[in-house]
């Protein structure tokens, strides 16, 4: 293994640790960085005992890490003479910097709504840029008392204050935000959000698709509709007709019993586990291999059960996503612990291998997933296409 490749893997594993264990910092440490840089501030800043914080920080080789404050984390961000670093149990790991927010974060829609509150940059610093539109800051499962066990939407929704958005964001304002992002080089959007009473979100996706086609002047677009399985599977065909090139159903865990425990609301809203899996299979028939995604919250079940699901879904052409479980404040699993970083690292490496074995490409993963994840990084490191290789080449050439 080349030195740079080895360094990239070491740093990627550090990123994984920072996701799984979170990071702490002294209150006020970021005040000077954030002063006058509103776009860098994370939305739910009052969420953190650490006070105001940037939405992410950057490791030396460009890996962006979403800042997840955890009081009991072994990782800490410290500052000395204006240089910020990450430590582990007090031992220096790496100096860090902060991302440059996209231009659209500083823009407003024609109705004066801040675009930052409509779309989130999910590119993690990659030149392949993507954004996520969460159409709502609420989920109908909250009132039913059936939120997914790992989800912190209830508490987030209470804390958003002025950043709280209406039950459904206006499709026209979403289209304006996406246009602004595409104008600065973004190439893919994911539309996602919680359930809406009477499953009104199913029709709403079609409205957003129409608005996007009109605003972008295209017949279809690189966009992923991320939805709960509909009882009537023909809805899936309509999403394709509306212009979405990819679609997603997040299983979160594999196996009926796990699904029913972790996703009680999805059981009720989506016709149960069997219908959920049928929806994924039908979507592959309609959209094609490499154009259907399913997320797993990795760390909620034994590895052998998890891989049974990952193996089945990748074998039929699904782009699976292995999101490492980290307990959200305000979720039913607040205070729980995720498996060790080594456990998660093994999952990430084996999962990338599965996607590769199933014939998936980096491009398919990019266009089917909401944001850059470990599979993107591992694919690009293995292919030699990682931006860090290019940067190193450029530096050598100077
Ligand atoms: S469906 Fe589950 S994960 Fe999605 S917003 Fe609702 S509670 Fe959260």
Features:
single chain, 398 residues, alpha/beta, TIM Barrel, 2 domains, seven-stranded mixed β-sheet, four-stranded mixed β-sheet, 40% helix, 17% strand, binds iron/sulfur cluster
Calculate the mean pLDDT score and round it: 92
The count of strands amounts to 13
Could you tell me the strand content as a percent range? Answer: 15-25%
CATH superfamily of the largest domain: Aldolase class I
Which kinds of small molecule does this entry bind, naming each only once? iron/sulfur cluster
Tell me the CATH topology of the largest domain. Answer: TIM Barrel
Q: What's the CATH architecture of the largest domain?
A: Alpha-Beta Barrel
Global morphology: globular
How many individual helices? 15
Detail the poorly predicted runs.
none
Q: Main β-sheet: number of strands, strand sense, barrel status?
A: 7 strands, mixed
Helix content: 25-40%
The arrangement of helices and strands along the chain is HEHEEEEEEEHHHEHEHEHHHEHEHHHH
User: Radius of gyration, rounded?
Assistant: 20 Å
Order of neighbouring strands in the sheet with most strands: 7-8-9-10-11-12-13
Give the domain tally: 2
Oligomer: single chain
CATH class of the largest domain: Alpha Beta
Q: Quote the distance from N terminus to C terminus.
A: 25 Å
Backbone structural class: alpha/beta
């Amino acid at each position: 293994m080349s030195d740079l490749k080895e360094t990239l893997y070491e740093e990627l594993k550090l990123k994984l640790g920072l996701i799984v264990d979170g990071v702490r910092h002294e209150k006020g440490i970021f005040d000077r960085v954030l002063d006058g840089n509103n776009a860098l501030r994370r939305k739910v800043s009052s969420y953190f005992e650490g006070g105001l914080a940037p939405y992410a920080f950057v490791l030396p080789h460009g890996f962006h890490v979403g800042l997840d404050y955890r009081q009991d984390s072994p990782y800490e961000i410290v500052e000395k003479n204006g240089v910020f670093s990450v430590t582990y149990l007090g031992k220096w790991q790496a100096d860090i910097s902060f991302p440059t927010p996209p231009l659209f974060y500083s823009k407003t829609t024609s109705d004066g709504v801040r675009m930052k509150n409509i779309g989130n940059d999910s590119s993690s610093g990659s030149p392949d840029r993507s954004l996520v539109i969460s159409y709502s800051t609420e989920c109908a499962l909250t009132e039913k008392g059936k939120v997914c066990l790992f989800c912190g939407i209830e508490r987030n929704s209470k804390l958003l204050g002025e950043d709280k958005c209406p039950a459904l964001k206006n499709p026209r304002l979403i289209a304006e935000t996406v246009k602004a992002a595409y104008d600065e080089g973004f190439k893919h959007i994911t539309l996602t959000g919680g359930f809406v009473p009477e499953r009104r979100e199913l029709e709403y996706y079609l409205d957003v698709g129409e608005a996007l086609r009109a605003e972008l002047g295209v017949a279809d677009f690189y966009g992923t509709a991320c939805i709960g399985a509909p009882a009537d599977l023909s809805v899936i065909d309509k999403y394709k007709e509306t212009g979405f090139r990819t679609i997603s159903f997040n299983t979160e865990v594999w196996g009926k019993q796990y699904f029913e425990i972790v996703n009680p609301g999805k059981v009720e809203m989506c016709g149960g586990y069997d219908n959920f899996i049928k929806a994924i299979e039908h979507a592959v028939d309609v959209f094609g291999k490499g154009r259907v995604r399913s997320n797993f919250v990795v760390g909620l079940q034994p590895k052998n059960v998890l891989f049974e699901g990952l193996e089945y879904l990748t074998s039929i052409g699904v782009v699976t996503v292995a999101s490492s479980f980290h307990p959200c404040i305000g979720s039913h699993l607040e205070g729980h612990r995720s498996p060790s970083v080594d456990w998660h690292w093994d999952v990430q490496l084996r999962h990338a291998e599965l996607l590769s074995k199933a014939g998936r490409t980096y491009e398919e993963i990019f266009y089917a997933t909401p944001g850059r994840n470990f599979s993107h990084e591992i694919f690009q490191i293995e292919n030699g296409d990682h931006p860090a290789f290019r940067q190193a080449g450029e530096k050598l050439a100077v």
